[in-house]
Amino acid sequence: MLAYIRSTTARLAASYLAIIMAMSIGFSVVIYHISTHELGRQVPSRVIRLLTEPDYFNTYLQQRYDESRHALIAELILLNLVMLVAGAFISHVLARRTLRPIEAAMDAQTRFSADASHELRTPLTAIRTSNEVALRKPKLTLAQAKQVIGSNLAEVTRLERLAEGLLKLSRGNSISFKIEPVWLGEVANDAMNQVLAVAQAKSINIDDTVPKIQVSADRAAVVQAVTALLDNAIKYSDKGKTVYLSGQQKNGFGFLSIRDQGPGIKASHLPYIFERFYRADHSRSHQVADGYGLGLSIAKKTISQLGGDITAASRLGDGSTFTVKLPLAKTAN
Ligand code: ADP
What we know:
The chain is an alpha+beta fold. Helix content is 61%, strand content 13%. It has eight helices and seven strands, in the order H-H-H-H-H-E-H-E-E-H-E-E-H-E-E.
């Protein structure tokens, strides 16, 4: 109870209640004044003159006036007490409703900061440890120094990528898109060019059969999202495998699918892979893929903002298919 009294909800509810009661008491005062004014109106003298016992009549009227006034005060007090109880309940419900989305936003913010700090700590610890170890050595050869610098640089690169991802996520809502008709085939081409070097290094073949489909979107943003999906498909595939790019249109939407022959994703992980910082365990496939679990959440957020969606279908050991869905361009309908 004490905790509730100190809570933000209680403070906001108290403010609402104060407003409700101020209005209720204000109306009561007005009603009281109007009613007593009406009750106290003088009886016209020509009526008094007709009466046989005017004094008795006046006393009776005064008595009625006092009685009615007291009854009115009692009723108004009762009404205000009822308003106080009902108002407290309504205020609490309203305060909860007002605060719920604010609390959810604050929770998300806190979780985001906690996750980000946690992710930042790992490369920072690695940098500190390798530097401390190097410093403790009485003699550091040039080769050893180069190795420390090399590992530091690798961690700094990871940190840079993380910072970039975090920035993209936090900027998410304020990005302004340039919406125009975009060919999915061109998106696939641009994305393939971005990952060409990585694919070649792993001897991964990309099979592109995207047909002529035009969607309404921001080309650069879609290319970025598809690149992230293509990058994952290559990253999680074994050497020499093939990644398939295909497309179709249905119900006013264009679809671009990226299918790989990688390790697949466990059904228990699948619902969470689009969450920030979520990384499924791929120990079975011995993959030590580099990443922070931000790529999918950034891509999904972008595509959702463009009025589309990204979905994933996968079975462990059977590869994964990620599908980007975007509204068809008006000219394509
Ligand atoms: P990461 O940087 O870890 O790749 P993502 O957000 O891109 O972050 O992906 C989240 C997780 O989803 C990955 O850690 C991985 O477990 C899983 N995942 C994504 N794409 C694939 C894929 N093509 N095959 C298997 N698992 C994938």
